[in-house]
Amino acid sequence: MKNPETGETPHTASDVTSHVGYRLKRAHAALRGAMDRALRDHDLTVPQYACLEVLALRPGLSNAELARAIFVTRQSVNVVLRGLQDAGLVTRPDAVEHGRARPIHLTDEGLRRLRAVQSRVYALEARMIRDIPARRLRALLEDLDRMADALEE
């Protein structure tokens, strides 16, 4: 595959299935499918689980901050939060004294549900990386960060 603007190939891959982007998408799709299956038993979706994880670490985030943290739009996070609120897993005040941002917090039930499913999700990640030698894992994580940084410029 050649870049239409430069005529150059991004690397020496013989076909698209050998490109970094394709491999990243394949890994993402496999992880997403495995997470969907693990979370189904706990009546959670992957975006809902991501919200619970982030809110456990950073309680009081606004909708916009939470959307950025879980890589979705503000509109999408509103839909996710509605479902979490209806299930009694998060709370947000109806109004705030200053500004417009309404801080979001986990409820006790939200924290309980998160703790109930965390071990399954963490086991998936352990399974995903088990064949990567520890000495290479740090480099892989750094390379993934470099790739993301290069595209965010």
From TrEMBL:
Protein name: DNA-binding transcriptional regulator, MarR family
Coiled coil (residue ranges): none
Key word Nucleotide-binding present: no
Molecular function via GO: DNA binding
Keyword Chaperone: no
SMART domains: HTH_MARR (SM00347)
Pfam families reported for this sequence: MarR_2
Keyword annotations of the record: DNA-binding
HTH marR-type domain mapped to chain residues: 17-149
InterPro entries for this protein: HTH_MarR-typ, MarR/SlyA-like, WH-like_DNA-bd_sf, WH_DNA-bd_sf
